[in-house]
Specification:
Blueprint (H helix, E strand, L loop, with lengths): L2 H13 L2 H8 L3 H15 L4 E3 L4 E3 L1 H28 L5 E7 L4 H13 L4 E7 L1 H9 L5 E5 L9 E9 L1 E6 L19 E4 L5 H13 L7 E4 L2 H9 L5 E4 H4 L7 E5 L7 E8 L5 H21 L3
Parallel strand pairs: 3-4, 3-5, 8-9
Antiparallel strand pairs: 1-2, 5-12, 6-12, 7-10, 7-11
Helix pairs in contact: 1-2, 1-3, 1-4, 2-3, 5-10
Length: about 300
Amino acid sequence: MDNIQIKCFISVARTLSFSEAARRNYVSQSTVSRYIRDLEKEFGVKLFERTRRDVTLTNEGKLLLPYAQNIIDNINKATSVVSQLNSGSGGKLSIAYDSTSLNYPMKCLKKFTENYPNITVDMFKLSGSDCTSSITSMDYDFCFMPRDMLPDSDDIESLVTHKDSLSLLVPSKYNIKGKSIDGVDLKSMKFVLLSEGDSPILYMEIMDIFRTFHFTPDSVTEFDDIRSVYMAVGAGMGVAILPTQLVKNYSQKSVKIMDLGNIETDLTYVLAWHKNNSNPAAHLFLKTTNLITSESDEEEYIP
């Protein structure tokens, strides 16, 4: 059973004429007759009663007709939607992100909305643990997240988007010279942290840094979002450790970014999605992200 067979069946059922059905579908009358015989053979029932003068639908034909019409309607809708999305003229996309990966999603969305301005994009900020469960349950089309938060599931696919390091953010009024923490007494400083619930991976990385320097801060204030942490540092409430690329997006008049020295603080980020995602807009977004990632890789290795 194929599309043209179904269309011919519907035409005969509506017009009760094999010749008119042939005219409407641009085929010969004998072809329409063959299509109907093939359908009757496939279903094992008669769909029409035919005499020299009349054509009438059987009860089985009447039962099949609305289902056949639904098939054609769905095919037409699917064709229209895919065509619109391919040309960038419609569709909807949902993207989740954890707060520490915000920099790269901004880059991808900028390019995507330039190429497909009529596709609606909904954005959702989630905590690290929420990202993990949401992408597994297909609540969103995509999620930008740290690679270490990826769920262990064969149903989840991912693309490495970028890597980042960590830097120390200090209030400008501290008047610390240099760009590195060498010689800086971290033990005496008050720390402002992004909460473990909001970003478990970043929190663990920071705890590892404390252990590397063999101290535990005497004073720690936690916030549930990046902006609050940044504002607290700018207000002189303490220092913070945050992803370097991320904090460079904010104004730096009230804060100073310092290198953590020889400590390895690499964070790898991915774009994750469920392999059963059938949203055509998701295909276009993935194509855009792949292109940006490829261009970034080429820039990185230019001698």
